[in-house]
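Researcher: Re-running this chain for the archive, since the previous output was lost when a drive failed. Same request as before.
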Amino acid sequence: MEPKDIIAQLSALKEQFESGLVQVTDEQAIRAHQAAFLGAKGAVTTLSRMIKDVPPEARPEVGRVFNAAKKEISAAVAAAIEQSRLAREQQDLTQHVDLTLPGRIPQGIGQLHPLTIVMYDIVDIFTAMGFDVATGPEIETDYYNFEALNFPPLHPARDMQDTLFIKEGHTLLRTHTSPVQIRTMLSRPLPIQIIAPGAVYRRDDDPTHSPMFVQIEGLLVDQGVSFGHLKGVLEAFLNEVFGEDVALRLRPSFFPFTEPSAEVDIQCISCRGSGCRLCSQTGWLEILGCGMVDPNVLEGVGIDPERYTGFAFGLGIDRIAMLRYEGITSIKLFYENDPRFLSCFTR
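Model: Regenerated structure tokens:
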């Protein structure tokens, strides 16, 4: 594709974004409009994946144009949200509330959040298999979050992460807990067998995605580790969570830090494979990603890929919780802190 063609399409998308932005006023609608362009399946994100078809000598310039466009869109969204906030504050000032009145909701005993319940249950399953729990900082550097995980600069896969940068190209809110894998391989002796639970951040905001969500990743590095070991671990885990009769399948996929890579599906827990609305009539539900650790990643942390192999996997706790507690249609329910909703869950 010619650079001028992709830049022209980007310009048209910016005009479309700007014209649509003036028609939305509340924050939720503004963020939904942003996600339609910068989300994982947004128009700008989808177009940016075509950079790989641009002649190599023109890619840096096209990449800079895309980065500038994303910054402009993000700035416009921030300004619109601030304007919406000020309008709400002005409206609140006109309302009269008697702050001396007692609260209407009785105070009850605190309890675990449903996502915490699911996370603890998942951690218990993997620790029973011999995995240790490892943690790392939520504010990361580009090196640990991308470069050490085999994401070269301007790689299209970086767009899949929808990164929230603190300092462009340097510090960011981590987009996955994979940096914990790198930090662990650099600091611990072999063999390594860990899981890394924690909060991660991306530019997502729709009924099935949140700007912040909770993820658990696993890593095992030792001599003689194979894809068969990976499948066995995941099968044991999914049987514990969804029942021994649940079937799984692995589909070839791509992740920069694993090769080969796969997406793991489970048989629909609602219809058991016959097809329903939950599984979009396919009989299967996508549940996690996995693969064998790429030799480039091992070499980057000083591990000899000729002697050692490893596997890694990652899953969203929010996704597991939505399937475990059937009837939850929006991920936002987990983060709205409505006591009526949260009181429904016990461990």
